[in-house]
UniProtKB/TrEMBL annotation:
This is NAD(P)H-quinone oxidoreductase subunit 1, chloroplastic. Belongs to the complex I subunit 1 family. NCBIfam families: PRK06076.1-2 (NF004741). It comes from Streptocarpus teitensis. NDH shuttles electrons from NAD(P)H:plastoquinone, via FMN and iron-sulfur (Fe-S) centers, to quinones in the photosynthetic chain and possibly in a chloroplast respiratory chain. The immediate electron acceptor for the enzyme in this species is believed to be plastoquinone. Couples the redox reaction to proton translocation, and thus conserves the redox energy in a proton gradient. Its EC number is 7.1.1.-. Keywords: Chloroplast, Membrane, NAD, NADP, Plastid, Plastoquinone, Quinone, Thylakoid, Translocase, Transmembrane, Transmembrane helix.
Amino acid sequence: MIIDTTEIQALNSFSRLESLKEVYGIIWVLVPILTLVLGITLGVLVIVWLEREISAGIQQRIGPEYAGPLGILQALADGTKLLFKENILPSRGDTYLFNMGPSIAVISILISYSVIPFSYRLILADLSIGVFLWIAVSSLAPVGLLMSGYGSNNKYSFLGGLRAAAQSISYEIPLTLCVLSISLLSNSSSTVDIVEAQSKYGFWGWNLWRQPIGFIVFLISSLAECERLPFDLPEAEEELVAGYQTEYSGIKFGLFYVASYLNLLVSSLFVTVLYFGGWNLSIPYIFVPELFDIKKKSQVFGTIINIFITLAKTYLFLFISIATRWTLPRLRIDQLLNLGWKFLLPISLGNLLLTTSSQLLSL
């Protein structure tokens, strides 16, 4: 039997080419995900720095100023400190639940970023059920908090976990009803379609003007979902000794704060997408015609402008959330539950019925 060496070399080169194509395919799949994670990380660091600076200004005191210029590296220094601190495990706690709790809280929120459009072509996954994927995935975060409280073998921690679950259930329903109203108005549950539906009439096409009651309910519910003041009952220091975080230390303790800021950022992004036109500039063409001409000629420049507009609107709501935290006092648990079940739920349900009726009459 005669073996043709040229055929063997051709087969080997073909197999190497196919393997290289597979490697390149994997790399191109990971690049957008890693880019998004890096951007989210930088966004969280900026939020932590902004919160300290804004709170210092509201309380008339000096904020961080030594770690880096203007204290911009303070959040990074705190994260490094927590990374090298010892992780202490409760002696009689459930180690598996204790370790899994912080991870579930962070990962469930990170998945929500995959359906957020920063520009028309800049989205990780344009799904037809984008907004409801966010609601479904973010609902898993309280499960992680409840696991953390139960696995700590601490009554204070367990009570904090129960409060987190009760608060999340109370405000998740009004939040979902507001999102459903927006989906009915836009005739789609895709985040890209919702933004595009608001771009027809510029500034006046925002869902804010068509859903003012839903916007207020959504804003209050999102603050409660993020466990921000005046809704930070699950970790109230004076009442529960930090709640479900009591037995945590080191990086696991830091993951809870990362999850809180990740949730705050994703909620502000969804407020921008659902009610404030997303990446659209929303100003008439006659005011800045040169900018529109440059956007049409350069796709890269247009994408950068869209990202800047999205982030500018997002950080406006982050400022409102941060200022609210350092302005309003904390609610009692009975006031918190009454607000969710007796006020926000009926209002959001009535808003949904009005939206449905208007859509039926317009057919």
